Amino acid sequence: MAAPMQxxxxxxxxxxxxxxxxxxFTGVQGLVIERSLANGVDLRxxxxxxxxTWGAHSSDGNGYRxxxxxxxxxxxxxxxxxxxxxxxxxxxHEGWRGYVIDQIAQRAERSLPDRPNVILIMAGTxxxxxxxxxxxxxxxxxxxxxxxxSACPDAVIILAQLTPRASLEDEVVTFNAAIPGIVExxxxxxxxxxxxxxxNSKNGLKTSDLADGLHPDDGGYAKMATIWFEGFNTAAxxxxxxxxxxxxxxxxxxxxxxxxxxxxxxxxxxxxDVDGDGKDDYLSISTTGSxxxxxxxxxxxxxxxxxxxxxxxxIFDGSSDVLNIRIADLDGDGKADYIVVDxxxxxxxxxLNGGPKADAPDxxxxxxxxxxxxxxxxxxxxxxxxxGDGKADYLVVGEHxxxxxxxxxxxxxxxxxxxxLGNITDQYGESSRVEFADLDGDGKVxxxxxxxxxxxxxxxxxxxQNSDGAWDWEPKGxxxxxTSRKGTGVQFAKLSGDKKADYVIVxxxxxxxxxxxxxxxxx
Length: 523
Prior knowledge:
Elements: H1 9-26, E1 43-49, H2 51-54, H3 65-69, E2 77-79, E3 83-84, E4 92-95, H4 101-108, E5 118-122, H5 125-129, H6 137-151, E6 156-161, H7 169-188, E7 193-197, H8 218-237, E8 248-259, E9 269-272, E10 281-285, E11 291-299, E12 307-316, E13 325-328, E14 337-341, E15 348-356, E16 364-372, E17 381-384, E18 393-397, E19 403-412, E20 415-423, E21 434-437, E22 446-450, E23 457-465, E24 471-480, E25 489-493, E26 502-506, E27 512-522
Helix pairs in contact: 4-6, 6-7
């Protein structure tokens, strides 16, 4: 199909005149001519900012985003971002309540890898309100613009001058007045930036449009949507909006339900390779800590849906609360071990997995071994291999997602030896949302932040330890969008046997649904 012909300025004028004539001569309202922006190019939009981007004090939580999305005719417009708020379906954004410009810049790293072709920025409100060097805020905003341009040179940035506020209005005026000065040299250097004025434009907000003297009310957010859309029109007229670029992302193949569950809660379901064949098995832990296992025999034949499991029954008769149990390979023999962590000290004891043995209790061989006297609180401890040597390391996740690590040096006379690495990550997410899984099959677990409501996942790829001793984490953005299933939990397990962790959701009864990780493609 031929590309749609771009309407010339003269033809646009003709259509307007035609509409006026229809109204004048017939009394009938003129035709409403809907036209797309930039010849209907797809819009991958990143809303970036603070609580106003989040939608604070709007009645539906959508802020300006839903009103703006409704204005696009002929363009497929999709919001991206690691945050979700509001009752609209596509409610993603990168709006962080209370954040100043430098903090917003840190959070931008979550979504810039997803290569938006339009970035909406309004930032600086909290630098002024919290009195965080307001005079230096324009310079910091310029640094944020450079960061976005460096990551997405093809994207157009629509930069908003701040909305008014009931207090500190002089500071807002001063900040807004500085914005053209930071934009001009960048546009001359080839950056694609359009400024929109949220206060003094034709549709600009007044203090009467604020719900609390700072955040807009619904009418104020509607005005913001109109002003943002004017920015889109300006960008399109200047030829600044281009198609979103393709970027590497993980391909997920939906398999559907692979296990019906055994009627136990989702929090008692684990996955781990207990027989050392390279495929994680289905494990369920009873209220007393006993380990029930089902062997993973792989996918059923092409003519049969689902997955093939063989029951082993109870393979270890434990006596611990499920919240204190971890499943991981400590000794590097390829078989997952059973670990019990003290909830107060983080001290750990393991049952090392010797595999099936006919004359052993429960027909499985286990050897009790001390692991460590403890390095942290039980609820935030993970055992996962961060350096790719096959042995699970001891990780303690801080409240905001920073990780302290102790490398597993192998067995010693007293159980296991550990080497402290200190902090190895920045703060990427709440501790309850942090998971570790090897998504690329290189043997090293990657850092994941899971949305516990919809199941979306962000990734920081583990690049290993640098020559200076620091750990390298490469932001990959959102690598899984989540599902519509409610009340489910997300787990990652190597079910297909190709060394890459697959995406599994577990429903409240223990039933499991699988998306196979088919590796990275560019699209």
